[in-house]
């Protein structure tokens, strides 16, 4: 006897009404895709849940992969047996013996198949007794057991599951369309990308790069961050914008205190062009109210003027400590804190305007024709596809 299935519960998705079918199919595809390296594995849908058929594979690496898939609420190892009381007893005992450091247990039987001759309550007692007589030093605790053995007697078979492993929750990536993530090398924007993905968004990334002021290593850092984000979704296209000329022009021609605001407006304009060409309907940034000069309400208002695309700002209300916590959990923190320069830190104006105004930004911009440099930047975009590696795993040690 051994665990031969993994039971997948998808919780919140059950509330999604008409879209539910599409969500479930996408989740099934996403799971299949992440497990494509394991031969012979099947992902099956049944009412309200999914099962992975292990076909002899070690469940541990598979569970670890599933822990990074949005849309999975929780998972459990399961054994499928015939609707036969003796088989169910045997499987329950196996599940109990497989538990680590178990001193107390509880059995919960759910009889969905009313043709099964023993009612749930009675079956609870039958199994409890069987487990107590076949083990030593273990007792029943119905309130706070170390291990709960769940038995579901369904039409086709009975499933025996024990410990519950938490999943990431959220919605399956790809069910909420695409967004263009403005990805710097900092701590915030990768976290923003992760949180957008959590709501089912597939992301592409755009990065503004200013060689030789920003180095190849700074660019590689951004590609590495994108690679880390693929753990939670699919391959990510990263659009690298050659920003040097436009940025120099801005800092040469514009009043120093407005240069940063206008640089951000240019970033938005270029991002919108990429959205348009890639059929992306929104942008996502790591902006967070009140952190720095570019992130005051006035600043956001002035920068936002140049686009009417929705901008998703998942971090807007978070404290820095909360952002750092997520960044550590998702594995991007160590890369983010590498000290390579960013285009925004190289050209820092001496005294950026913390309360810029739309009218002034428009007035200053009208003095210089940026068209050529802007077109040059757009035409020079290099797109790099970051493929999800099949051997990555975020939390190797949790199981
Ligand atoms: P982060 O930690 O993400 O770098 P930050 O706290 O440094 O953010 P800002 O420098 O004001 O804040 O940047 C705000 C947002 O603008 C970033 O979160 C990111 O989405 C975007 N951004 C900044 N610089 C770049 C860049 N070089 N390329 C792409 N997007 C950028
Ligand atoms: Mg930054």
Automatic annotation (TrEMBL):
The keyword Nucleus does not apply. Its EC number is 2.8.1.4. It is found in: Cytoplasm. Its main location: cytoplasm. InterPro entries: Rossmann-like_a/b/a_fold, ThiI_AANH, ThiI_fer, ThiI_N, THUMP_dom, THUMP_ThiI, tRNA_STrfase, tRNA_sulfurtransferase_ThiI. Residues 60-164 form the THUMP domain. This is Probable tRNA sulfurtransferase. It comes from Virgibacillus massiliensis.
């Amino acid at each position: 006897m051994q665990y031969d299935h993994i039971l997948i519960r998808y919780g919140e998705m059950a509330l999604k009404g008409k879209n539910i079918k599409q969500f479930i199919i996408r989740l099934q595809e996403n799971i299949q895709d992440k497990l494509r390296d394991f031969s012979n594995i099947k992902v099956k849908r049944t009412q309200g849940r999914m099962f992975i058929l292990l076909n002899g594979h070690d469940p541990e690496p598979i569970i670890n992969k599933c822990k990074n898939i949005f849309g999975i609420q929780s998972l459990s190892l399961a054994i499928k047996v015939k609707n036969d009381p003796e088989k169910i007893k045997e499987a329950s005992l196996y599940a109990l013996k497989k538990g680590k450091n178990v001193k107390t247990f509880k059995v919960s039987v759910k009889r969905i198949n009313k043709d099964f001759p023993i009612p749930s309550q009675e079956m609870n007692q039958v199994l409890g007794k069987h487990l107590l007589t076949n083990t030593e030093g273990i007792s029943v605790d119905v309130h706070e057991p170390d291990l709960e053995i769940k038995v579901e007697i369904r039409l086709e078979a009975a499933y025996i599951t024990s410990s519950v492993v938490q999943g990431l929750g959220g919605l399956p990536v790809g069910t909420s369309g695409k967004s263009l993530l403005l990805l710097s090398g900092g701590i915030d924007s990768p976290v923003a990308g992760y949180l957008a993905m959590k709501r089912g968004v597939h992301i592409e990334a755009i990065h503004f790069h200013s060689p030789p002021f920003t180095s190849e290593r700074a660019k590689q850092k951004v590609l590495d961050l994108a690679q880390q984000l693929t753990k939670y979704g699919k391959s990510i296209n990263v659009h690298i914008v050659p920003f040097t000329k436009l940025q120099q022009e801005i800092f040469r021609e514009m009043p120093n205190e407005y240069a940063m605001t206008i640089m951000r407006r240019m970033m938005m304009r270029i991002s919108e062009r990429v959205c348009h060409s890639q059929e992306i309907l929104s942008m996502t940034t790591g902006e967070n109210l009140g952190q720095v000069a570019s992130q005051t309400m006035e600043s956001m208002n002035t920068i936002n003027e140049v686009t009417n695309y929705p901008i998703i700002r998942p971090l807007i209300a978070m404290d820095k400590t909360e952002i750092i916590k997520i960044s550590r959990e998702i594995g991007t923190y160590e890369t983010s804190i590498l000290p390579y320069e960013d285009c925004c830190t190289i050209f820092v104006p001496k005294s950026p305007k913390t309360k810029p105004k739309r009218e002034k930004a428009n007035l200053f911009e009208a003095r210089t024709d940026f068209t050529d440099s802007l077109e040059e930047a757009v035409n020079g975009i290099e797109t790099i596809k970051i493929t999800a590696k099949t051997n990555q795993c975020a939390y190797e040690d949790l199981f």
